[in-house]
Structure formats: structure tokens, C-alpha cells
Write a structure and sequence with these properties.
Elements lengths: L7 E5 L2 E5 L18 E4 L8 E6 L3 E6 L6 E4 L20 E6 L2 E6 L5 E5 L5 E6 L2 E5 L5 E6 L5 E5 L8 E8 L1 E11 L2 E8 L5 E7 L6 E3 L3 E4 L2 E4 L9 E2 L6 E6 L2 E5 L12 E5 L5 E5 L2 E7 L5 E5 L7 E7 L5 E8 L9 E5 L2 E7 L5 E7 L11 E2 L20 E2 L5 E6 L5 E6 L7 E4 L7 E2 L6 E5 L4 E6 L8 E7 L4 E3 L2 E5 L5 E6 L5 E5 L8 E5 L2 E5 L4 E5 L4 E5 L7 E3 L2 E6 L4 E6 L6 E7 L14 E3 L5 E5 L5 E6 L9 E5 L15 E4 L3 E9 L4 E8 L4 E2 L16 E11 L7 E9 L1
Antiparallel strand pairs: 1-2, 2-63, 3-56, 4-5, 5-6, 7-8, 8-9, 10-11, 11-12, 12-13, 14-15, 15-16, 16-17, 18-19, 19-20, 20-21, 22-23, 23-24, 24-25, 26-27, 27-28, 28-29, 30-31, 31-32, 32-33, 34-35, 35-36, 36-37, 38-39, 39-40, 40-41, 42-43, 43-44, 44-45, 46-47, 47-48, 48-49, 50-51, 51-52, 52-53, ...
Length: 739
Amino acid sequence: MSRSRRLVHAAVGGVVALSCSVLTAPAQAAPEADEPVGTVRLVTEQRVTVDYPWAGASGFQWRPATGGTVTTVDYPDTVPPAHAGPDDLATGTDVVNTRDGQKVTQKHRSTGATATVPIPTGQTFRGAVGWSVLTMDGTGALHVLRSVADGLATDIPVTGLPAGARPTAYLTGGSVRRLAVVYALDGKTSVGLIDLADGTFRTYVTGDTAAPQVAFNDRWLVADWQAIRVDAEPGTEPTALSRHDARLEAVVGDQLLIGNPGFVQVGTEAALSARSLVTGAVTTVLPSSFGGIGPTLDGGALATAGPSSLDWNVHRITPDDAGGLTTEKVARLPAAATQVQGLAVSGGELFLYGATPGASYRHSGFQLDATGRPAGPQTRRSPAQSPTTCLTGDAACPQLEALGDGRVAHLWTNFAGQESVLGVGLDATTTVSAPTDGDSGGRIAGSTGRYVLYNGASGKQRIIDFPRGTTSGTTTLTRDRTAAAVWGQTLWAPGSSQGAVTGRNLKTGTTTTIATGAPCTPTDIQAVNTWLYWSCGSTAGVYDRATHRKITVPADHGPARLADGFLLRENRTTHELLLTDFHTGTATTRTLVKLPATDQNTGGSNGRWAVDRFGGHIAYLNGTYGEVSIIPSGVPASPLAQMEAQVYSPTVIGRSFPWAPVWQLNKPSTWTLTLATASGTVLRTLTGASTGAAVRPAWDGTTDNGGGVTGGTYTWKLTAHPRDGQGQDLTLSGTMTLG
């Protein structure tokens, strides 16, 4: 099939643009796809809180604080000791203790050495750390047990605990030589340490707090915000520390880790800080750190930190030789899935909409490569948003309409019931909006680039324009509601005679009428590239404006969604997603994929599946919570072409206000833009990749050698290469005047 085009001279904003694109025959079709090429998972922005069942010298275990599977992480650089066993307490930093009734099994992870500690009759388990097990007998006396040969254990009575003391807590910290005991006596609460080598106990801190916070290692004990050296002379008073509305998390070397504050100022996040117990200096160890923070048996600590759930990691904290701390990422924590409440795909980008604790609702994006495979992580594509108001019974709500320029449009309703059209996607902070003059209960019909087609329940149809560089849109055309579609800068709507469809240039107002052969006034019109789809309800067809062919396509199983050379429909009975390929001039239909029989979203084409009109890939909810799969159409794409352009002549130009034209193309590309003097001397060459299918360069007026430009007329030349490799490069050129 051959598609020809005349060279078109279009005046855009006072700039002459020359299109040198010739739409030749598309490349051969790829093999039919029957399996998804990739799957993405929409995750919540709430960062998971974890705890650590065990953390030692060779690795650690973590699990969600709400419960769930325990995950083990091994450090890759662990060097096992030459010998490990109960006779060497220091090697206990890598021991995992597991209790089963009156028996504790011990395993040294890096060497594999094991031991068993039987708990004598009449004693009850109170705690275990390293190679030592703490028990209490019927009189209230404490014992330290350690394994010896032949399944026996030594029993070391704990001495030094004051008479009448009532233990209330047994705590482990950053040591395998000591274990903390909190006890009540005479209306006071005290904290001391058991030396596990010989069972001696020493009280260090006494106060009025019934449940004091405690952190310790082999150098320091900090309890109830009082610090003391473990080797301090008897009778030494602890040093009072400034109290914070935060937790004493661990002592690493000479540094006290303080985290998980009870209050955080709006706009800030909790951080993990360290206070030197020697100098008193306070430093930030990890910004954006909270939740899972705690000591490790080898005297270090673990802490979760990261800017978002997409980059949330466990960090290992160890002392350095200068008395400070070092941190290292040791595990990535996966975020929890969240429900997909809307999806759209356009220009090689998948947009998903869903709730995320802490941010209300948000649009997220996934980049796809030319084959449809996910090519990057989930990224924010909007600020936090209010829930979208849905029409009663509208299972496809919220309806998302991807515009092909890196943005997605949707509707929002205010307290008065009035709708606005919102656009997001170019960054994580900007929302552009346009009112519908009090209309409500509407839908977004086919829209592309800067133009959004809104059908209001009032019976009015509006074309809303979101031009480059603006934060709000304006209604550029209001008309009675009919079947209509926008592609590029052309509005397609029924003509005055049966089967006629008229295209109106939204910039110039000029019109052209096409006889589609439809036996009615179409009730549905869609446009993609040279393809014009019409439906009369019981009959449907596609008109190819390039070859003037009239192609009959199936009209059952609506609603249909037009894409580049094919049509998508869903059989709501069998749940089959049907692809009708008509790019050769003859329509053939096949089952693309069978959708789940039930899903959380059972709407139409913007409910649980969507198609990329600017690239040809299809995305659908695969039935697993939070997941969307991508499958290619197998239909060749049209050659690269310009749909619309916003090229202008700036008054001034600079780093803060660059020249930023937009060329809306029909599919993704990589591009080169050269700026030259009127005589042809090249001043600057810019390169990049399209945003969606839109080319969005920014020139700050500097030359390639770092110089600046003055007022005058400059020429530009844009060369775009199709990312899918199908068809020829597109070359556009023109002039712009500075000043």
C-alpha cells in the first residue's frame, strides 16, 4: 500500500514550516503477538515499615511490621571466622537462636556451626543473644545457659541483681556479650546489664520512667535519655541528655542513633540523626528515614530510608575509624501494590491512576520501549489529586485520555457539581485546568496534543486548548454535541449529507469534506493518522484519507477504539479483546488476549484496557491486583508525520526563558534540532527523545561554543527519526525571529 502526501506549507505563529515528510508504504508487519511483552505493577507511595527478627554479622532478616513473609538478606563480603562456637562469645554476632519449647537451637550462619541449649525443668525462657540463653527459675533468679558437648549446657547464675527487684523487660542491643534488664524496685525503675561471660549484673541508670527507652552496645548504655560508659567506675552518675520526642534506636561506636520522631513539620520528613556521646555533636545520618531502625548484634545498626516507596532501602550503619558512621544500602524494599483505577497508553508511555496513602490519588508513568516492554521504573506524573467524580454506574471512571504529548487529561468536579478538564503528566507538580462553563456529567472524546474534546451533559461540545507554556486552558470552540474526533489540529464531525464527515482546521477555520460511504449520519467518529472511523450502530467502516479506500469493519461488541491501522473491541460475554487489522484494505479480526472474567474495573476502553494511538501497543488489567500487562498489536505503524506545531518568535531568550517550540508528531522519535544564522552558519545543535510523540526542545540562546546570540532572524531544522524504525525520517524547517 502506498500513501502519498503533498508538501505542505503551514504558517504557524508567524513562522513558516516546511514539511518534507512523504508517507511511503509502511514496513512489514511484525508477527502476531499472543503473549504480553511486559507487565508493570502500580505501587503505593506509602513506604513499608519493617522489623528485623534477626540482624547479625553476615546479614539480616526483615518482614513487614504488619506481618508477612520473612526475607533473608546476606552481605556479599562476609568472611567467616576460623572458629565459631559457644566457647567464643565474640563469634555470637552471627548466631540465630530458635526456641522450641524447652530447647533453643543455635546456628552460626557463616560457618554453619550449630549448638543446642536445653532449658532445665523449672526454668523458663527469658531471652537469647549470641551463644547465650537467659532463663528464670521458680524463685525469680536469673540464669545464663550456654551449650557444651553432648547436648548439655552450663548454668551460670546471675549475680548482682538487687534483692526484691522485679524484672519487667529483657532487651538485646548491639552486643552479644551483654543483655539489658529493666526492673522495678521501691517505686523506681532501673536499667542494668548482665555480663553474659560470668553472669554478673550491674545497675547503671535509675529513674521515674516506668518503661524507659534503652539502647546499648559494648561501650555505652543509654536509658531514659541518660548515658554512661559500660566500663565506668562504680558509683559514676550517668550524663543527662537533651530529651527529644523521638526514639533511642541504637548505639553504634560512640554515636547514639535517634529516630522516628513523634512529630514532623509539614513539608519535611523524619530523619535519622546521631549524637556523639563523646563530644555531643549532632549529625544527620540518613534523611527521609523512619520505621525500621534497630541495632545489629555486631554493634552496628539497620535503618530504612529513601525519598519514596520506589527507592526505599535498608541501610547498614557501622562505625568508622574517626569516631563517625558509615552507611551502605544493603536491601531494596518492594512497595505494596495499589489498585489501578484508570489507565491510558500513548506515545510509548503507560499512565496509571490510583490511590496512594499520603498522596490521595496520583498519576504515575512507565516508559515503554519500541516493542512495548517496560523500560524504566514507576515515576510520578502528577501532584497529589482529589478523587475523580464519576457518573452513576460508570465503571470506566475515571476516564483518562492520553494526549500523545506526555500528558493525560481527565475530568474533575467541584463542590457545585461543575466539571473542569485537567491535564497532567509533563512533571510531578503541574496541573493545567480549564472550566467547562458550568457543564457537568461529561466525557472526554478523542483528543490529541493541545486540543481536548469535551462532551457535556448539557448537549454542548467544547474544544479546549492547552497551548504550550500555559497553566490553564481556554475553550476555543463551542458547538452542539455530535459525534466528533480531534486529530492534530483538525476537528472531524458529521457533514451536511449522509455519510459525509467534515474536517475543520482549528487554527485557520478552513474545512474539507469527505464522503466516507457511511449509510447514515455517523453516531461515532474517530480519527488516527489518515484513518477515519465511523459507526452507524449496526454498521461501521474506516475511510483511508491517503488512498480513499472504504473499508468495512465489524460493528458488534462496541464500543470500539481506533488505533493506527487497527480497531479494538471487547466481547463482554467471552471477555476476549478483539483486534481488527485493516491496514491492508481488508479487515481481519483475531483474538488478541482473553481478559479476566472479573476485575476491579469493568468499563470500556478506558476501563480495563487502553490502546496507544501513537505507537500501537495495548495495555490491559491482567487480573492480578495492581498489575497491567502490555502487548503489541503486530500491525505496522504509519510513517512519521507532523500533526501540529507550536513554533513562535520570542521577544527575549535566556536560561530562565528558553525558546521552547513544540512539534506534535504521530509516534515517538529521537530528534536533532539545528539553529543557524540566516546565512547558514550553524550556531547550536540540540538532540533528544520525544516526550510521548511530541518534540519539546529548549534553546537558551547559547551557541555550541558557549557564546550568546543577539536579535535577528534564525533558521531551524528538525530531523526526527522514528523510534520504531518503521518509515523514513521526518525533516521540518523554518525560521524564527528573536527580538
